[in-house]
Design brief:
Blueprint: H1 3-9, H2 15-24, H3 41-49, H4 55-62, H5 68-79, H6 89-98, H7 111-132
Region (Disordered): 84-107
Biased composition (Polar residues): 84-93
């Protein structure tokens, strides 16, 4: 079974998933594939934000130890949250995703993550400078 199918169709039936969702301030989709909260980014972002993005918690929510691509991208987004401009589209989406989050305490960035974040910030700064010079 794929991770999203497990999240949508099975997690709400599992007592440990219900307890973890309650701890994380998450709504379980309970068989409903409609809406953004049925996607994997919603629970993964919450686990990352609270520093609970562990293989065990991935198993509880998704039936697998990891969802590498979404997890890596979401970790980068969460770690960059303090750099997001007030009122930007990213900040507005973050507010939606993070509603009900008990705390902002992600695990510290690894050296590789720090380098990637710095590369992204440098690109954004360079692009902003380019647009400002027009």
């Amino acid at each position: 079974m794929q991770a999203q199918q497990f999240w949508v169709n099975e997690a709400h039936k599992q007592p440990d998933a219900r307890a973890l969702a309650n701890d994380q301030g998450l709504e379980l989709p309970a068989g409903n594939f409609q809406g953004l909260k049925a996607g994997l980014k919603y629970p993964i972002r919450r686990l990352v934000m609270t520093g609970k993005d562990t293989p065990e918690n991935f198993r509880i929510f998704f039936g697998v130890d990891s969802v590498p691509d979404i997890h890596a991208e979401t970790r980068k987004e969460v770690l960059m949250t303090p750099t997001v401009q007030e009122g930007s589209p990213s900040q507005m989406m973050n507010r939606f995703w993070d509603e009900g989050c008990p705390s902002f305490s992600p695990r510290p960035a690894t050296e590789a993550e720090q380098a990637e974040i710095q590369r992204q910030l440098d690109f954004i700064q360079g692009f902003s400078g380019f647009l400002g010079s027009r």
